[in-house]
Structure formats: C-alpha cells, structure tokens
Prior knowledge:
Elements: E1 4-11, E2 14-21, E3 24-28, E4 30-32, H1 45-51, E5 56-58, H2 60-65, H3 69-74, H4 78-82, E6 88-90, H5 94-99, E7 103-107, E8 110-114, E9 121-124, H6 126-136, E10 140-142, H7 153-173, E11 180-185, H8 191-204, E12 208-211, H9 220-230, E13 240-242, H10 248-255, E14 261-263, H11 266-271, E15 275-278, E16 281-284, H12 304-308, H13 311-319, H14 323-349, H15 353-364
Parallel strand pairs: 4-14, 5-6, 6-10, 10-11, 11-12, 12-13, 13-14
Antiparallel strand pairs: 1-2, 2-3, 7-8, 8-9, 15-16
Amino acid sequence: MTFCFDLHATDGSARAGLLHTPHGQVATPVFMPVGTQAAVKAVSPRDLDDLGATVVLANTYHLYLRPGDERIARLGGLHTFMGWDGPILTDSGGFQVFSLSQWREIDAGGVTFRSHVDGSAHRFTPEKAIAIQENLGADIIVCFDECAPPDDYDYNVQALARTHAWAQACQAAKTRDDQALFGIVQGGVFADLRAQSARFLTGLGFDGYAIGGLSVGETKEQMHASLEAVDPLLPADRPRYLMGVGTPQDLVECVARGVDMFDCVLPTRMARTGTALTRAGRLNLRNARFADDPAPIEPGCACYACTHFSRAYLRHLVKSKEILAHQLISIHNLHLLLTIARELRQAVMEGRFQAYREEFWRLCE
C-alpha cells in the first residue's frame, strides 16, 4: 500500500486530513506519543491503543546505538519488535547527533560523532540514516538534517546548504516503496531562510514536510513567525509535521498556522517529575496542598487515571516513588493531548476552529 494524504477540510490555515499508511490511517491534526527507544515511557502499547493513539514515534539515533537497527530487522522490524501494529514514524537521528553526542565533526558528507552511551565513534551520512530507517521499517521516515542554533544567521546559511544537499542524497538513497519520506524545513528563526528551505524541498517533491529546529530556545513569537513563513509555501496535499513540539497551547496555536502532526516527550517527561498537564495549566502533584484532595487531576477528564484515582492518591504515589505514579500521570497527560488533537480536528471539520481557539484560551486564563 502506498502512502497518501487526503485534505478533508480547512478553516483559515487550520487543516483536517487523513493519512493513509501500510499500518493504518491517521486522522489529523494528530499528536504522536514518543517511544524514543521503542517504548513510550511507562505506557504499554495496550494503553496507547486504549488512549486512541494512532501513530507513535521512535528514534533512529538511539535504536541504532542500542539494540542496533540490523538486530531489529532480523527480529521482524520495529512494529514486531515493540508490539505496536499501528503506524510508526522514525526521525533521522540528526537532532540527537547534534544534541547528545560527546563529540562531533561535521563535513559536507555527514557527521562523525562519539556515542553518548559508551563513547564509541560512529558516522552518520544521509545514506546511513536512510539505511537505518529502512532496517527499522517505520511507515514514515525522515531525511537526515542539521539542527543549527536558531539565532545564528551565518551558521544557518551554511547548515541549510548541508541540509538541502543531504535531503537530495536521502531521496536518492531510499529503496523501499512502503515507506514515506519527509523532508525537513530548517532555517532557524529567519523567515527568509525558512522560505528558501520550504521552496527548495517542495521542489524535490517529498511525501510530507517536517519543520525542524523549533522549540529549541527561541520565543513562541519566533516559532509562530517561522511557521507563518512556510505555511503558504508548503503544498496543501502533503502533511506538515512540527518536530518536538507538544504542549496543549502549542497544539492549538500551531494548528492555527497549518501544522498537522506533532510529537513531544513532554507528557511522559513531566509525569516522571509528578507534574500533570491540564487545560488550565500544570499541577505539581508533589505539592502538599494535594495531600487531602479527593478530586481527580482534571474534573471531567475521561482518562483511566482521572476516573479511578484522586490527586491525594497520586501525590502519595509520587512521594512514595511508586512506578505507578509515572504510569497514571503519563496516561492522563497523553490523553489530554490526544483529546485536544481530536477536538481540533472536529472544530476544523465543522468550521468553528476560531471559536474553539478562543474558548481554549478563555479556560487557560
């Protein structure tokens, strides 16, 4: 089955569509839980299915280092390995090469780096990134790119030239016709570079377009301006994926700027610190004021954690360092983001996105 995207409705720049992949359909806008090392932390595939998750993300860099992409291929591919039969997206590993490795050296052909796990030397090239992702067997794979510091114009010019050359090399290296390949729009916080990148990559004709290098220290205003620069330049019949972004507020404001797909480690990372996400803000469940609170994390929430347990109980689990705390708060946090994505889709389909947006922000006040 080939990959395709149907755009069902628009409301301003907000969009609602349907992705078709070999492992199922994905309604957009969509939030993708992050399973960095072939597992969403503290959440089982069964729980993800119960939450209504339709696609998950895994990490090329981490799985290449451990347990190895060739081993995963021998064991039947990533879907079999992690017990998830829905769609999977793998990133290229580019961000992790630049953010996690102990040492790195960039040249025109790729990046040589030392593993953050054991210090061993490795080299990623566009061809290598594609080969790893083909071994993993995800439905959607992503070009190798350079994630540059967002506010250094001269460096972004150089990095963008590499990212574009690597995108061409990734396209040429791809051999599997059952995987969609997304190009990555880069350019820091500079509207002219973002527009240049969008024009170049759309000229190559990818199956979809990721927007990288955001939520890395720039302001929300800069992130929004970057999205506005590329929104009119990306083809309407291809999905847009904003990499590494995923607060409730980000979902609403970035859908307003034409984004279809999101991923972020935030919901499970926050859960491991005892922090729950709500529509009105964050709750630090370590706080003593919750010790006798019989209310759920968020009144009206239909997730398993909220329908079965109180804030007082969850605080007890957090303070007792029980693993169940991570599990339950992660389930709630993911449920919230998945629910907001579904609500955004429905609002776009019904032509009431702006009303939904205004009501969302009213509740946040």
